[in-house]
Amino acid sequence: MTLEEVVNQKPSERAQCTGKALEEVLVSSKANDCLTIGVYESAKVMNVDPDSVSFCVLAMDEEFECDIALQIHFTLIQAFCFDNDISIVSVNDMQLLSEIFGVISKHLGEDGQNPAEDSWEDPALEKLHLFCEESRSYNEWVPEITLPER
Prior knowledge:
One of its GO terms (biological process) is regulation of cell cycle. By secondary structure, the chain is mainly α. The protein is built from six helices and three strands; from the N terminus they run αααβαβααβ. A three-stranded parallel sheet has the order 1-2-3. The protein is globular, with a radius of gyration of 15 Å. Residues 105-120 have low confidence and may be disordered.
């Protein structure tokens, strides 16, 4: 999907497309052992090897809006992503996100292996990068993605 195709989509189609693409990327990255979960764990990875980070998802929830320390960490992660040209989005449905991670664990099974080869070649990650690029052109630096209902 090109940037022009993303731009020409209706907002509801674009939101659905990016939500599905994010879910695909999360499943694929977990299957390939390329997923880091948690604010502190992610900050460690970014500090040690920033070139290994290709995409960042900030999981926000209303109950955490008053947590000043967490907001400071989010701000620092956002700044790091901007400085290192890492696409970043936010998701505001922690329940749905945890359900996806539950499905990921069940999908992987006991051995943690996924039969999908070269899943990072999947166009879902490219769709998310294009979505972020388009959002930045509208000065929306951390666009919010709505995950598809389960």
